[in-house]
Design brief:
- The chain is globular, with a radius of gyration of 21 Å.
- The chain is mostly helical.
- The chain has one domain.
- It has 14 helices and no strands.
């Protein structure tokens, strides 16, 4: 197959736009606990969208999964479940640090582990990465990406020092730097397991191609399995929180029976006219939009990966860089950086410039690899 690395970069940018934007619709959810809207949106992210698009674009989806090696299915599912631990704490990262800083820190760890571990584990790091000019250029791009993430993190730390407590909480209501950093670190390391799950699904992609699935959609059956694992972890945790906080009624009723006040950890604020009632229809619509948008990041990721030739592992760096670029832009648009000084703005701009440059460098490295491939 002929690869088109710069087309792959474009697909990864689209995936980054989706991932960097998915949390925005959740801001429209009113009077639902975090666990309620996270799980409601998750049904679209992990179940509905993967199966719907997989069935439409990979017509032999069920047959492929039926014939796939059980060992590979189990590995994909297990890595998805581990990724789910990172995914559910990723939402907490957004709550404590905001979109810009939260995604920057979490995805920094995720980029490093998710990009470098698959070729190391496969025994290809020395021969394919260190031993070729294209591999070294890609490795340089990974380094530039991590540098950009580090600079973005410095911008967040600078912002934290400059802003008063009232200003922080005006932009991010539950801002907590120390707690957010701890959660973001755990989330980033565990979220890298998604990359391992995709790598483990390579034989499933080959089977999908044999059954006539177009090249661009070959990764969709793998996404179904990995996301099932992620769904399992998130479902268990959210239901536990529903029980603990007595918020399970929110899926079915606009008000709690006999409730005189809002449940803990509610999203948004109620209207003055009806302070107890949650807008059920709009809440579900916002969750559906958020969940579907979240899935589209990996929909485009699977497309971009098919265009990266022998260096598919570099897709993870492109994905992470693109997410941080667009999430940072959203953070600027939503005024999360309001009140920050010139030094913080310079650091933020430098971080964005490095991240954009990293996608170009990685794309060029893949282009060199495509020229080398007979």
């Amino acid at each position: 197959m002929v690869s088109h690395p710069f087309l792959g970069v474009l697909f990864h940018w689209l995936g980054g736009l989706a991932a960097g934007s998915f949390y925005v619709p959740y801001r429209g959810v009113k009077r639902w606990a975090w666990e309620t809207y996270w799980l409601a949106g998750g049904f679209f992210s992990w179940i509905i969208a993967p199966w719907l698009l997989g069935t439409l674009l990979a017509p032999s989806l069920v047959l492929v999964l039926r014939e796939a090696p059980l060992e590979r299915l189990c590995w994909c599912y297990a890595f998805g479940a581990l990724w789910g631990l990172g995914g559910l704490t990723f939402g907490l990262t957004m709550r404590y640090l905001g979109m810009s800083l939260g995604m920057g820190v979490a995805l920094g760890y995720c980029a490093a582990f998710g990009t470098l571990m698959p070729p190391i584990f496969a025994g290809e790091f020395v021969s394919k990465v260190l031993g070729t000019a294209s591999g070294l250029v890609i490795l340089l791009g990974v380094g530039v990406c991590l540098g950009g993430i580090a600079v973005a993190g410095l911008a967040g730390m600078s912002k934290e020092r400059e802003m008063g407590e009232a200003a922080k909480r005006a932009a991010i209501k539950e801002f907590n730097f120390k707690k957010g950093i701890l959660v973001a670190t755990f989330s980033g390391v565990m979220s890298a397991c998604f990359s391992y799950g995709l790598a483990a699904g390579a034989p499933i992609k080959e089977l999908a191609l044999k059954h006539g699935t177009p090249v661009l959609w070959q990764g969709l059956p793998v996404l179904v399995v990995v996301l099932w694992g992620g769904f399992t972890t998130n479902f268990v945790w959210c239901v536990l929180l529903n029980v603990r906080h007595r918020t399970g009624y929110q899926y079915f009723r606009a008000t709690a029976r006999g409730a005189a006040s809002a449940p803990p950890q509610t999203a948004g604020s109620a209207t003055a006219a009806d302070p107890e009632r949650a807008p059920m229809l709009s809440n579900y619509l916002f969750c559906a939009l958020a969940g579907t948008t979240w899935y589209m990041q990996f929909f485009f990721y699977s497309m971009g990966e098919t265009q990266m030739g022998d260096y598919k592992f570099s897709s993870w760096t492109l994905h992470m860089a693109s997410i941080i670029i667009f999430s940072t832009l959203w953070g600027i648009f939503l005024r999360e950086w309001k009140g920050s000084g010139p030094r913080t703005r310079r650091l933020l701009s430098a971080g964005l410039a490095l991240l954009v440059a990293s996608t170009v460098v990685v794309g060029y490295g893949n282009y060199l690899g495509a020229l080398r491939t007979p």
